[in-house]
Design a protein that fits this description.
By secondary structure, the chain is of the alpha+beta class. Helix content is 36%, strand content 21%. The protein is built from 8 helices and 9 strands. Strands 4-5-7-8 form a 4-stranded mixed β-sheet.
Length: 294
């Protein structure tokens, strides 16, 4: 019937640990008495066909939350994760802001260029930013965070305390693209870039499904496609930074335990000492980074 549902068995007391969740944007929450045990079934129901591509990633994230720590902690994490997805769905229904459109353009341009080196299947698998990963692309033991701005001196937004934390990686790079806007007749728009990727994908349903799932998770809704075709985007420069000690950033380590999360902006013109030449990258990363920077 083009709907989907996820259910977990909970007691009355555990419902309080999950916290309040409000129906929004085609997702509703139901509780039903369990006919076998004394508890209840807590159900998450996706009502809209356009939300079905997202239901798998949502279910995966919720399942991961339920496996974290003790049962009480897991239920709290479950509620927090669901509220995060609901907030995303509310934003996605409104359409992407101009800043978010530029951000998505930068990620898609990076995806397209990476595919020239490693192929579409591996490139799409590496594009993990839409699934709420800390970085946009993960290639085995190294990662890339992509930032796109109209002006080279414009501050870039850092979305979390983990986004510029290089500790988990052999290498973490920040790829900064600067662009200028142009009339649609003079340069491809975000809408045209999306369409060109769809056309370039090799035959096979799996690649298209994986791409569309990530695109939807990034907030790109076909209902808003016309507004994404109003401005052409031309890349003016691409600069690669290697994240290491001394880079302007805020890390969780050393912060007061009461600080749970943080978002901030950095001026990359203060990080000139951290620019990275391709020749300095690992031999494994060099082919991909070369394509990304073209």
């Amino acid at each position: 019937d083009l709907t989907a549902a996820l259910g977990i068995s909970v007691t009355e007391a555990e419902m309080h640990a999950i916290g309040e969740l409000s129906d929004a944007n085609g997702v509703e929450f139901l509780t039903e008495h369990d006919s076998v045990s004394s508890g209840r079934w807590f159900l998450i129901h996706a009502l809209e066909a356009e939300d079905l591509p997202l239901f798998g990633p949502i279910a995966d994230d919720l399942a991961e939350a339920l496996l974290s720590g003790s049962r009480p902690d897991a239920l709290i994490a479950f509620g927090d994760e669901m509220r995060r997805w609901l907030n995303f769905l509310r934003i996605a229904r409104k359409g992407l802001s101009p800043e978010a459109q530029l951000g998505l353009w930068g990620e898609l341009e990076t995806l397209r260029r990476a595919a020239r080196s490693c192929g579409w299947s591996d490139a799409i698998s590496a594009w993990v930013g839409p699934s709420h990963a800390a970085q946009d692309f993960i290639f085995g033991s190294w990662a890339v965070e992509v930032k796109t701005t109209v002006h080279p001196r414009q501050g870039v937004k850092i979305a979390s305390l983990e986004q510029l934390d290089n500790e988990p990686w052999d290498a973490l790079y920040l790829l900064h693209r600067t662009v200028k806007m142009a009339p649609p007749a003079e340069a491809p728009t975000l809408k045209q870039l999306v369409q060109s990727i769809r056309e370039d994908l090799p035959a096979g349903e799996r690649n298209l499904i994986d791409f569309e799932t990530r695109l939807h998770a990034a907030g790109y809704n076909m209902a808003h496609e016309n507004r994404y075709g109003k401005h052409g985007i031309i890349q003016e420069s691409a600069t690669l930074y290697l994240i290491r000690d001394g880079f302007p950033r805020i890390l969780r380590e050393g912060l007061h335990s009461g600080i749970i999360e943080a978002k901030y902006r950095i001026a990359l013109n203060t990080a000139a000492d951290f620019t990275c030449e391709i020749s300095a990258a690992s031999t494994v990363a060099q082919p991909l980074l070369t394509e990304m920077l073209k």
